[in-house]
Amino acid sequence: MLVAAFALGASAQPGDPLPTLQHVFATGDCARCHVVPEVAELPRTESCTTCHVWIRKVAANPDARAKAIEIFPKWERYERNVATYLQVPSLTAGFARLDPDWVRGWIADPHDVRPYLDEGMPRFEFSDDELSVLRHAVAAANVEVPATPAPDPANVEAGRQLFEDRGCVVCHALGAAQKPVTPLATAPDLAHTRDRMSPDMTVAWIKNPQAISADATMPPSAVTDAEAILLRDYVYGADLASAEPPAVAADPVASAEPVTWAQVEERVIGKICIHCHMDPDLNEGRAGPGNAGGFGWAATGIELQSVEGVIAVADKIPAVLLRRRHEARRDTVTQGQRPADLVRDPRPGMPLGLPPIPDEDIALILGWIEQGMPH
Ligand code: HEC
Ligand code: HEC
Ligand code: HEC
Ligand code: HEC
User: Fold this and answer.
1) Residue 130: is its pLDDT beyond 80?
2) Both 164 and 96 in a single domain?
């Protein structure tokens, strides 16, 4: 169904009506990770977030866990490995406060906003019309807020004091200017806020996030109107002092040690890639977005669940892993770094939306391929 929806978008002719918002949400698979307004929640078998959260819940409940171990032979491995998509920021709270043009540009070419959250927004293949429909939806969802004075650089020092005294620095980074005390993965690096939110919205949000969106998880901060303006002026005026991440190190070289399929499966393919590239015959027809198409990308037919499936596309695997390594300078930056401007390859690196595979594991895969893919 998602594939058919994509085909409609891709073959749009001038004069065709704009795609509907529902179509864009479906094409982008937004509900796999977010709760999306007016879109039915996906079952656990389809939703990255729901299933991962479920695994953690069962792991914490001794009775349910004992049952799960009986049903799923690999349960203990699942518990060990599931770490991402457990907390995804609210789409609704984002639509309520973020600048519509910023959202449009970011969905077309995302970058890391939260230095302590490993996973980022995947890159989508959207047409200009689809992006315009999303932009329009954000503009319509933006909450109206009172006008405030323009940001004043003279307030930066007073705002910095408040930022530290009022505990903002407990959760938030602000470029290299502020390092969070106990970083919260879902708290954005406020270095991006001057691009993401209007000055008026920033004041209103700081005063009372829940008045902007019931889904806001930031606690209300009990600041006066004047203090909220000082804090905003600091967020807007601070010297962020952030540098671009260093250049990407030389490509890893193939491991010279003998490598087995079991190692490659355990450390990379069966741990990460399989989740978007499933074999439909082993999963009641579900093939995942990397196989059947998803996030706006057309179907690839690539199944990475069986060794045969991996061998069939082995010539493509090194390039997609190295591409993601290159994209990391924008998509997976650490505290204090500014996401680099990238000239992207038209095809996204793998794993999509996730940090690159560590160099030692890439070396392992390259070694296995070079050794003729023994299995
Ligand atoms: C595979 C999971 C996944 C899918 C699918 C996904 N998102 Fe996201 N989304 C994320 C993650 C993770 C973040 C946080 C990224 C960051 O902070 O760098 C995010 C952040 C956002 C934000 C910004 C919220 C904020 O507080 O910063 C918006 C808006 C958003 N997504 C909209 C969408 C839309 C619209 C779609 C569908 C076209 C979509 N997302 C699909 C995982 C996903
Ligand atoms: C039906 C349940 C289920 C669904 C749906 C699901 N996963 Fe997973 N996911 C798992 C399990 C179980 C593991 C651990 C597998 C292992 O190590 O053998 C896992 C592990 C992962 C991992 C590696 C560990 C980590 O957390 O980083 C990634 C990446 C991943 N999944 C991505 C996704 C994405 C993206 C989606 C949505 C397109 C998704 N998963 C949907 C069950 C699920
Ligand atoms: C307990 C952790 C926590 C504290 C303390 C906190 N925040 Fe937040 N803040 C968040 C989270 C989480 C978000 C993301 C949206 C959400 O889920 O509410 C956020 C969002 C924001 C945003 C929107 C930024 C963007 O680019 O999307 C601003 C601005 C902000 N906070 C400013 C502040 C200020 C100023 C203070 C101190 C008065 C503060 N925050 C205190 C957790 C916190
Ligand atoms: C979050 C989901 C997701 C994960 C995880 C994922 N993929 Fe993909 N993959 C996709 C999507 C979507 C496409 C289609 C994009 C395109 O057309 O280039 C794709 C395409 C590919 C392609 C075809 C690219 C080309 O140039 O033809 C290869 C090869 C691939 N993935 C390998 C991998 C490997 C190896 C991993 C694990 C390291 C992985 N994928 C993890 C979603 C994913």
Assistant:
1) yes
2) no
